[in-house]
């Protein structure tokens, strides 16, 4: 996982996917929306045997703004940071004029000493620093549970320099002023300096120990909050292709590290300037589940246990540098069966308007 973050600056997610309207040739009548709203109901819990090899025991989460049965899609254009040089300096470089500011097309970079900030052609907003790297040497997120130490950073809620809720408000304010709107938190790792000192591991991606990367001294000033979050759009959580290669943890496409110095590291994938698009009428849950059954119900050797069903607005990047924002359901499934040791989890993502599965090719 440490290797993943060290390589995050070259993360690539690309694709050219379907538009935000309904099926080709379909024109919604004015009365359809009111009719859908009156009969659109989503259960709080789904507990059923969908097929011989598919069981569902899942709590359903859907934001208030989607419970009417319709949502507004959006069209995204690259963000424009070209006029924000001073704001970026103040927020991430303590106002230092030594940071070199460069622009090229839609991309921006700002660098000084051991801190680098950039917005790249993949629409990632990234802040990388030596301090962030030091923290990443102390935590292993995801992977094999037995080798992960992340649970140790869930034992506390707050750090002495500021309560977690206040820090979250600070992050939302600072990034919001840049046009990056942060919503819900999946998890926050509360990284106190004593635990980091005990857990520090400077082994690099090749498995070679690098003692020179070790931090010389740890103190309370190094205490850090490490957030895994979601962007939001009109009060609805946003995801960015979590099914591309099935590699994302919940909230991993939007992470922020904060110490008493402020934001010392972040990676927000899929940063766009959004404008409202067409309205999408959401399918009833039974039709969404029909896609699950049709695609996986005939698998004779694999069993799927669905443990969560979450509604999101999904960023779908296009080849011209723009993107679309569409409603989707994301189902977390534990997959067991012939040739599978123990179990592993997969995300099954289904378009909330068309019923098309977006993960069937992965």
Topology:
Layout: H1 2-6, H2 30-39, E1 45-51, E2 54-61, E3 70-78, H3 85-92, E4 100-104, E5 107-112, E6 115-119, E7 124-129, H4 130-136, H5 164-176, E8 182-191, H6 193-199, E9 224-233, E10 236-239, E11 254-259, E12 262-269, E13 272-281, H7 285-296, E14 302-317, E15 323-337, E16 344-351
Parallel strand pairs: 2-14, 10-14
Antiparallel strand pairs: 1-2, 3-13, 3-15, 4-5, 5-6, 6-7, 7-12, 8-9, 9-10, 9-11, 11-12, 14-15, 15-16
- What global shape is seen? globular
- Count helical runs: 7
N-to-C CA distance: 21 Å
Count of individual beta strands? 16
N-to-C order of helices and strands = HHEEEHEEEEHHEHEEEEEHEEE
Largest sheet: 16 strands, mixed
Quick check: average pLDDT?
Answer: 84
Please state the CA-atom Rg, rounded to the nearest Å: 22 Å
Structural class: alpha+beta
Instruction: List low-pLDDT spans.
Output: 1-31
Percent strand equals: 35-45%
Helix content: 10-25%
What's this entry about, in short?
With 362 residues, the protein is an alpha+beta fold. The chain has helices at residues 2-6, 30-39, 85-92, 130-136, 164-176, 193-199, 285-296, and strands at 45-51, 54-61, 70-78, 100-104, 107-112, 115-119, 124-129, 182-191, 224-233, 236-239, 254-259, 262-269, 272-281, 302-317, 323-337, 344-351.
